[in-house]
From TrEMBL, chains A, B:
Membrane-traversing stretches: none
GO molecular function: oxidoreductase activity
Organism of this sequence: Bhargavaea changchunensis
Class of the enzyme per the UniProt entry, highest EC level: oxidoreductase
Designated name of the protein: LLM class flavin-dependent oxidoreductase
Keywords: Flavoprotein, FMN, Monooxygenase, Oxidoreductase
Length: 444, 444
């Protein structure tokens, strides 16, 4: 908690909910509008937020929600945003199941270098089985959940080795003597593992923050283990303070058990704040955002969590169907949450689908009210900070202009950027090069 | 030739030659300096040039020249440049041997979208066998030259299918009716070939230019066949007008033989112009650029063409060694040119290596002289245009300020950008969506 509350913005184009794009204040082509992404990033930077974040997936069907059908790829759009911002962190989602570690390490390092040390990597394992079809495999060859996380652990290990290919003082660049670099400070990866083998050195140096910051959002047992072993920022969307505290406590405990400093594993919550001058106005805005969801659309969105399962085959007003383990190789934690909630509250399929479609947020009301809730979550062990999912530009603006100043008054958030890198903003330590450390150890 | 001369800039950081970085006017960290890349792009855009271009490779050894050891990845740096430029084309090198078509199609399309239709793709097959080591393979599993080009042809076919996933009017985005897109205008790739299989639709639409422009530089028989079947701009570095005319004629003939309009296959030459107020000054500048190359460095650079062959094992003052097919799986056309030149002119190894190290250019002298040579090449069938390899910022500036206005006076080059896309600049047609064409054909 040394650096105060973490605040980032997920820029999510025309929105996660199927009907967000119809809102009068969202450009209907927001998901491929550079101007939209730039505007959201500049509002966030004006608020001195820690980072902007771009989510990702690599499989669509005609039933996918509008934003998924047609959107920017994260590394390209974030590189473009690097050029028009100067301080804010830039977090790119990239799959460890369907990428090559050398190419991934390189693009993330290149974003990190060109932004002066502002890159982060949200490591995902690709929950959609259909992704396999786009990457040369049969659908049933999509690796099983546990294997995906084993791949992710090894992938991340290789990427970090590659990021340490060059010690920080490897490049001497002395024009007079003609010495460009010190070959003793170049290190080849020499990795030969279960899933990946990489022998060479990366052809790009480390940035001012040493390595990009690794983000992770796995909530299953496999996901939590991977996150506590590897990530520096973990996030979840729990929606209520009790579940958030449970998650927070669990992740911090796991970090301590693996011998890490729990302060160096930041736990944040994705939230959808709705801020307005009055409580009534805030609720009216939320109403507007869900007015047009049909049952058909709600069922399609529900199906996506279950790896595109077709829910129209069931009677909508009968109890939530028994799915018998179906989709367990998809977004497992979402599936468990949905089924558990439906059983507990005795919901019909229609009720479960519409509940999932409605934006659930305790962060709704006046700036004072929302700032108070954030402080409560932050001070009582529910989160080290928040990722704002506020694709309505006016909602991001009202948060930055209404809530952020109140957080400052309460001593919870920075007045100015005190450092230049994403690690500086987050209060995470510079990541030492493993070989430099090894060298020093020998000298001691 | 309808649109006049093509002019682009290769931005190449601290330079291809091993000692360029020592020049007083080049920042020694140019290869990872966003400011350097931005400045070169803005000079080029001020001159109304067609494009900037970023080369690439994915394997280094401690013997690699400085620029190769530590440089930006093309798609990330070009996305950043997209945000700070408004007209100039952006051409990214990407390997068809060590990438996935879905990921490649997507990043190139994303760059194309965020730049408003300014992207190009330089398709390469990765000449360095060591690349295999960084991508999970044994070195001897680097695919053989002919196979790499077969892969390239199929890779490009899949990428283009994916780029046509959405017809240009597929996205309706009518907020009132709630119709976001027309499912009949979404097309899955359904590709199942020798090397690649991709089933899905790309999750990004086409840009205002339809598809990115494909560049290619293969000079071997395989390379030329691939280029004439697939590319829209081909380039070579022939260094003298006779060889350039042969290449030009050959490529145009091949295009015609495959049934293409030869005007839609632009043939350009990479050149290193050295422009100064006087001829003496120009020659002095060139002298400065090579003053410090040692034999050892020249041999290492020579070796890179031969897939990192170690030339220090030979007597430098004996005749150029008989290599017996060695390195033929690398950059084959370079190898043939070097060996042929050494045999023809009876060179020793030292002479061949130093010849390769020296910047060879007939485009040296006053602006009038260089403009005259360019006009000669352009008007007598040696090239449709030129890619400037001028990493000394002052050389790019003196070309843009001295030579470009003279080309305008001669009616050879544009005064202003007349269109907004890279295709507009190059005079290449908008690339129709294959499915839209098919639909129209049925109506006729």
């Amino acid at each position: 908690m040394g650096k105060g509350m973490v605040l980032g913005t997920m820029i999510h184009g025309a929105g996660e909910r199927r009907t967000d794009w119809r809102h009068p204040a969202i450009p209907s082509d927001a998901s491929t509008s550079f101007d939209f992404y730039k505007k959201q990033a500049l509002i966030s930077e004006r608020g001195k937020l820690d980072f902007v974040f771009v989510a990702d997936a690599m499989y669509i069907t005609p039933q996918s929600a509008p934003h998924y059908l047609n959107r920017f790829e994260p590394l390209t759009i974030l590189s473009a945003l690097a050029a028009v911002t100067s301080n804010i962190g830039l977090v790119a989602t990239l799959s460890s199941t369907y990428s090559e570690p050398y190419a991934a390490a390189r693009q993330l390092a290149s974003l990190d270098m060109l932004s002066g040390g502002r890159a982060g990597w949200n490591a995902v394992t690709s929950g959609l089985g259909g992704t396999a079809l786009n990457f040369g495999h049969r659908r049933d060859m999509h690796p099983e959940h546990g294997i995906r996380y084993r791949m992710a652990a090894e992938f991340t290990e290789v990427v970090r080795k590659l990021w340490d290919s060059w010690e920080d003082d490897a490049f001497i660049r002395d024009k007079d003597s003609g010495v460009f670099f010190d070959p003793k400070k170049m290190h080849e990866a020499e990795h030969d593992g279960e899933f990946f083998s990489v022998k060479g050195a990366l052809n790009i140096a480390r940035s001012p923050q040493g390595q990009p910051v690794i983000f992770q959002a796995g909530k299953s047992e496999d996901g939590r283990r991977f996150a506590t072993d590897t990530a520096e920022v973990v996030f979840a969307i729990d929606g209520e303070i009790g579940a958030a505290r449970e998650y927070y406590m669990d992740m911090k405990k796991r970090a301590a058990r693996t011998g890490r400093n729990p302060d160096e594993l930041l736990v944040i919550q994705g939230i959808s704040p709705v801020v307005a001058d009055t409580e009534e106005e805030a609720f009216r805005i939320r109403e507007e955002l869900t007015a047009t969801v049909s049952l058909e659309e709600a069922l399609a969105d529900l199906g996506r969590h279950f790896d595109h399962h077709d829910f129209t085959q069931y009677e909508p007003d009968a109890p939530f169907p028994d799915l018998d383990g179906l989709g367990a190789n998809g977004f497992r934690s979402d599936i468990e949450r949905i089924i558990k909630g439906a059983r507990r509250d005795g919901l019909t399929l229609r009720e479960a689908a519409m509940r999932e479609a409605a934006p659930k947020t305790p962060f709704i009301g006046t700036p004072e009210h929302v700032a108070g809730r954030l402080e409560e979550w932050y001070r009582t062990g529910a989160a080290d900070g928040f990722m704002l999912i506020a694709n309505l530009p006016s909602l991001l603006e009202s948060f930055v202009e209404g809530v952020v100043p109140l957080l400052r008054e309460r001593g919870l958030f920075r007045e100015v950027y005190e450092g230049t890198t994403l690690r500086d903003h987050l209060g995470l330590p510079f990541r030492e090069n493993r070989y430099a450390r090894a060298g020093e150890a020998i000298l001691v």
